[in-house]
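Supplementary Text 2. Reproducibility record for the structural model of the 362-residue chain.

All settings were left at their defaults, and a single model was retained for analysis rather than an ensemble. We include the record here because the model underlies the residue-level annotations in Supplementary Table 4.
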Amino acid sequence: MTTQASDADRRVLVRPAWLEATVSAVFSAVGFEPGDAVSIAVALVEADLRGVSSHGIMLVPMYVDRLNAGGVTRERELDIVSDAGAALVADARGGMGQLSSPQAMGQAIERAGRYGIGLVSVRNAHHFGAASRWAMQAAQAGCIGIAMSNTTPLMPAPGGAERLVGNNPLAIAVPTASGAEIVLDMALSAVALGKIRLAASAGQPIPDTWATDPAGIPTTDPDEAVLGMLLPAAGHKGFGLALMIDVLTGVLSGGGWGDQVRPLYREPDRPNDCAHLFLAIDPELLGGADSFRNRASGLAARVRGSETAPGVDRLYLPGEIEAERAAHQRRHGVLIERSGLDGLLAAARAVGAVVPAGGVLN
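Retained model, structure tokens:
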């Protein structure tokens, strides 16, 4: 493992608009239409703005490698496989999740407006970044939004010694009367694999509760952890929920599940073949939207106003810290890992993208 770097050495403050323009230039250079390139860039930079760097611009080099090798396509339109009114099955044709996912959740929202609930199951998909973005899409349209995905196996069964299920992410977003959504976004491992990759790039150790080495022994070495297995959040509970998400995504859609979902960072010429589920619930058709949003706001106020433990100044709702961080960083600059910036600029050079000037603030 490399020597640990200081915070000042490993983090860079950049302009969000510059970061979006640079990422967009990369995806335009590899063959995407300008509007699609911007959509991908905005989704990735939003993750960095919210402090979820594992799903932000650090992914660009991997995406470019997979695009160049043929493991992900430039298809953008979903192919509707079956349409049962409130429920659809769609085929993403191996395209970027940042392009297929807003279409899928858009369909779910539209169906929820007609039937009270809309469900879109997507197969032959590719990594969609932060799940919260797609759940929030529904919440911003007045619906409860749920988004989930399966991933390549990363975690063992309790007591097991082989990768069996992914750390399958789940996000739920709830609209409130105040306009600020309650947003849960979680992977079902103790941490996302991207956080371990960031630690490895920065030369930082990890807690021994995050992952094991290839022999199944807990490790603080992120390089060993990448080769080993992630540990489920909450032990058997995290494993069980991850398994059920594999059912609700891959098994239900007729897409990949278990080790049919290919690794993102290996075999770049092979389709990822993950699967997604998008669910929108319209409170208007289930008792009234205004009443629901007021009640959700009451629940939020109850959480914020509850008793604090000694030394704790404030309590937060799920997603509140990320929303406040994003608002601050949009105004003052987004802090990203230097290794992530270096990877982005290297990818830009490799594909001949023109990088705008004046992005770095420190």
